Amino acid sequence: MFIMKPEFSVDFLRAIMLSRELGIQVTILGDGSNVLVSDKGIRGLVLVNRANEIEILESNKKTKIDTIKPEYRWESDSKVGSFKYEFKDLDYDEFDKPRILVKMDSGVDLPRAIDYLLDKGITGLQWYAGIPGTIGGAVFNNIHGGTHFISEVLNEVAVVDKNGKEITIPITQLGVDYDKSRFQSSGEIITSATFLLYKGDIKKAKYVRYEWAKRKSIQPRNAPGCAFHNLTQEQKDKLGLPTTSAGFVIEHILKLTGYSVGDAAISESHHNFIVNKGGATAKDYLAVMKNIYWRAKKELGIHLVPEIFLLGFDQEEIQEFLRPELVAIRKKRASEIKTIYKDSKKMFGAKQTSSPIE
After folding, report:
1. What CA–CA distance (Å, rounded) separates 16 from 6?
2. How confident is the model over 142-146, as a mean pLDDT?
3. How far from 239 is each of 235, 275, 294, CA to CA, in Å?
4. Mapping DSSP to helix (H, G, I), strand (E, B) and coil, where does residue 165 land?
5. Which of 1, 27, 292, 338 could form an SS bridge with 70, CB 3.0 to 4.6 Å?
6. What's residue 70's pLDDT?
7. Does residue 153 contact residue 125 with C-beta atoms inside 8 Å?
8. Domains of the chain by range and CATH?
9. pTM
10. Could you give the percent of the chain with pLDDT greater than 90?
11. Distance, CA of 142 to CA of 305 (rounded, Å)
């Protein structure tokens, strides 16, 4: 495994192009969140993207936008702690506010982008406070914050395709859904993204940003991210659970508080996180995941679907997580989440109110 950390977009692009020409496998990492890398490493070249330019664009065009909102994803129960934070009281929409285009390199740090743009009077990313990672990773995963998905404010994405060609893809062709985009299977590498953000209420947005991050602060930082996707509504109803939270199942149903393998342990502050207590290996982490998976399968008759990406592992090592049933469950979960994003059918209707892009 070879690692490069380009700090400028031109160097990032040059490394991608050269690797493609030489037939070298390339893996892109931003901040390395939401991934578990095998102890063996990753075959080929790993590019840790550090390109971090933010460009605020101007336009005199006008757009028409929809005010549809997705259904709330989170469910919680204060008595049993099925979910330890809630966001409904912070939620609001900005669809009546002026819009502004902002282009960002895929290596831009997401927390930095949020604060930088708020200081410039630009809102729309406050929902993702407390989420580590880069702009490229956020687009790749179509990250969510409460009821919001980052695809709501995406305009277009610049990529290098499998043939080494630079192309720009509009939001309507990104195939976004719950924690999903076309980039997870297309082989395209994101180089930058242009967002259609808001000139919204800065005071309100800053309050949401800090309060949001505060409520998410119980999530451990010494972990790759949530280990598993939440359950489907069908699984929840079949088991008679008060929530779809995978953390609730791990804590209250499987009763795995304190379970560990080596230095990889289930977090007691949020049971859907597996933390590194100091010297955990990827093998340790995977062993904890597998125990949770098989306990849920044996005792509850359900398949838990990994939320983190497993990189560098042989198929035999992760065969539990490659089962066709997991693909079907992921699709079912996605169909239960109302994702909104800017396409011609949903956000450009003749009866919608117009809002200027500044």
Report:
1. 11
2. 84
3. 6, 27, 17
4. coil
5. 338
6. 37
7. yes
8. 2-48 (3.30.43.10), 54-219 (3.30.465.10), 233-336 (3.90.78.10)
9. 0.80
10. 58
11. 17
